[in-house]
Write a structure and sequence with these properties.
single chain; 282 residues; mainly alpha; Hypothetical protein af1432; 2 domains
Length: 282
Amino acid sequence: MLHRRGTILAAAAKLEVVQFLPETAAACIEAIDEERNLSQVVALVETDPALTANLLKCANSIYYTPFLGRAVGTVREALIRLGLVECKKLVIALGVVRTLRGRGYANWPPGFWEHSMAVAGMTIRLMQRRRGAGLDRHDLSRIYTASLLHDLGILVLVQVSPIGYREVVQQLGVRARVAVCDVEEEVLGVRHTEVGALVAMHWKLPPLFEHLLGDHHREAVDFNDLPLSALYLADQLSLRIAEDQAGPMLAPVPGHRTLPSNERALLAEELGRSNQIVSLVA
């Protein structure tokens, strides 16, 4: 087991650095953060055909069309319908999913990206509710991206030990309400949180990433640490609300508190939105 653990950690540390956001996506986020005018943001989006197509699909999806109005057909109309803050979150999510899929980090285990996107959206909502006045726009980008990547360690484990992680998923499918980290440690000798933090460090991601990727399954979370506690709650409660429909990969950690009905409704909305968006990504 120690040999397997060492082999996995060594392989993870050698993975090629991934630039998560394509150049166009990064430029769009910078333009929104710098509060440039709408025409400049539109011009940047339109230089990327895939991003243009995906934003139009999202803007015309049921989750962004509260009334049965006409479909939007231009980037400008899509950005007006979505709003720039929501547009920024979508650009981050779509960019990360496309990049990692393109680098061989497949859409497996089942439900991975739907869960990741829902957790990222709910993390931001929880932080906004607790802070009241909302988030600084730069903080929002960093926390949303780190939350979206909170289970990066799982993708890395799938990459470096595909047979081993299939055994993890199989074990989760036959064992009732067992924590994914516990099964990973039994089968592989290492948890995805440890691998995620290791990769974040080697890829020289901001310290926030190493913290959130490495600590979001900690048993004793400091609730004064707003990003970590919001991610922790969003993750655990997402697993609970999704367990009936999402399959064994999303087995929840037993023993955590029940989600209040108002926050449960918000999370159900985020899960539905995420399922729709992932299905649209070209």
